[in-house]
Amino acid sequence: MHQRCTLLLLILALTAPDPDDAGLIYGGKVAVPHSRPYMVLVERKLPSGKTSICGGFLLSKNFVMTAAHCQASSYNVILGLHDYSKQDNTERILVKETFIREDYVPETLINDLLLLKLSYDAKLSSHVGPIALAAPEAAAPQSCSVAGWGRSDKHPTSMTPVLMEVDITLSADCEDKDFYCFLGSAGVGRGDSGGPLVCEDGKAYGVASGTVEKENEKENLFSKIPKHKQWIDSIMNTV
């Protein structure tokens, strides 16, 4: 369905050059504090020395999922975060090792997955906990939600300090073997890469990868987790 050459020209990677240009959740609302204990803020140290931000989500005590195009020189993850300006009860952990999907295609964001192994186990609590992943045989979802920190309708020029969320309905007319997608003005943007697409059964079905501009709407793309579930399990069970 997607013309890959067009996608290459139009794709907007959702990473941000610095923390003040982090992602956009448009058409959404402030999330109930700690209602998404799996949400992770990934701080990336770039080769230039600058710090950038991606989203992510906790899979186990020592693994976080994010997007492959969020690669960096080094990483810290922040767990248990709701308000970026109030981090007293959060946990910041250095990433020890990274595992990129070996067939990731940067030009089209196909197979856009990156696993981060933490330097030590996270302390699980009501504010910090993993999310289950959709199985390979899972039926295509419809009603889902996405979340992230960064710019929003009320904070169009700076990072939104609190976690924002928005409910979405996936588009049947843009079904693709690599991506789930939906059309509309609401959704994710720069800085929200790597965040989870969470659907009806409370499981993560996708990883936020990019958007394609289409007239007055944008097509939000999420790399399909069921397609990669076997790879994810093999990494987490062997390292």
TrEMBL record:
Catalytic reaction list: Preferential cleavage: Arg-|-Xaa, Lys-|-Xaa
Main EC class the enzyme belongs to: hydrolase
GO CC terms in record: extracellular region
Any one GO molecular-function label of the UniProt entry: serine-type endopeptidase activity
Annotated Peptidase S1 domain residues: 25-237
Principal location class: secreted
Known EC number: 3.4.21.4
Keyword Lipid biosynthesis carried by entry: no
Alphabetical keyword list: Disulfide bond, Hydrolase, Protease, Serine protease, Signal, Zymogen
GO biological process: proteolysis
Signal peptide: 1-22
InterPro entries for this protein: Peptidase_S1_PA, Peptidase_S1_PA_chymotrypsin, Peptidase_S1A, Trypsin_dom, TRYPSIN_HIS, TRYPSIN_SER
Keyword flag Protease: yes
Compartment(s): Secreted, Extracellular space
Protein name (database record): trypsin
